[in-house]
Design a protein that fits this description.
Elements: H1 13-19, E1 24-28, E2 34-45, E3 73-78, E4 82-88, E5 97-103, E6 106-107, H2 109-115, E7 133-136, E8 145-147, H3 156-161, E9 165-167
Antiparallel strand pairs: 1-2, 1-7, 2-5, 2-9, 3-4, 4-5, 5-6, 8-9
């Protein structure tokens, strides 16, 4: 399979979240072996106006990565124990990202982070240039469901009910 090119990630987060379904995330381990995971669930976060997006609080040390050009890895820690994997989308200074929520054999973004052995050192790395993680192309998935995002009650009724969660 072929790595997805940088331009692929410059799409709007909602479009990217849908198009990442079925793609293959490759993780290279310290011993050189590789694991491949089929992406089966994603969520889109659409910038400063989206109250569920970290960028809604403005540009901070934590959110700076969201303002990068599409394709940059954005990881953050929740509950002091789970690293969440996001891929920045769109263009520089327009903060958007896609959260990877599930693989075909593994459900839950916290479990994804643990399985991939993520840590803060992945933050800011470009998915296309990384030697330890990238995404490969696969046939387009057109049969998926759209539903509201999970765990964002703090964002208010409007933002929590937008169907920007996509599942195969």
């Amino acid at each position: 399979m072929q790595k997805l090119p940088p331009d692929y990630f410059r799409q709007d987060a909602v479009v990217l979240a849908k198009s990442l379904l079925g793609k293959i995330l490759v993780r290279v381990w310290d011993d050189g072996t590789q694991s491949r995971f089929i992406i089966t669930e994603t969520e889109a976060y659409m910038g400063e106006e989206d109250l569920a997006c970290h960028a809604s609080k403005g540009r901070t040390k934590r959110t700076e990565t969201l303002y990068a050009d599409g394709g940059v890895i954005y990881v953050y820690l929740i509950y002091g124990m789970y690293w969440m994997l996001n891929i920045v989308s769109g263009t520089e200074n327009h903060p958007q990202a896609v959260l990877i929520r599930a693989f075909s054999e593994l459900y839950g973004p916290g479990r994804i982070g643990k399985k991939l052995q993520l840590d803060k050192n992945f933050n800011g790395e470009h998915i296309c240039n990384s030697q330890r993680m990238w995404i490969e192309d696969a046939p387009e998935i057109t049969n998926f469901t759209a539903s509201p995002r999970i765990g964002i009650d703090y964002a208010g009724e409007y933002w929590k009910n937008i169907p920007w969660r996509f599942t195969v």
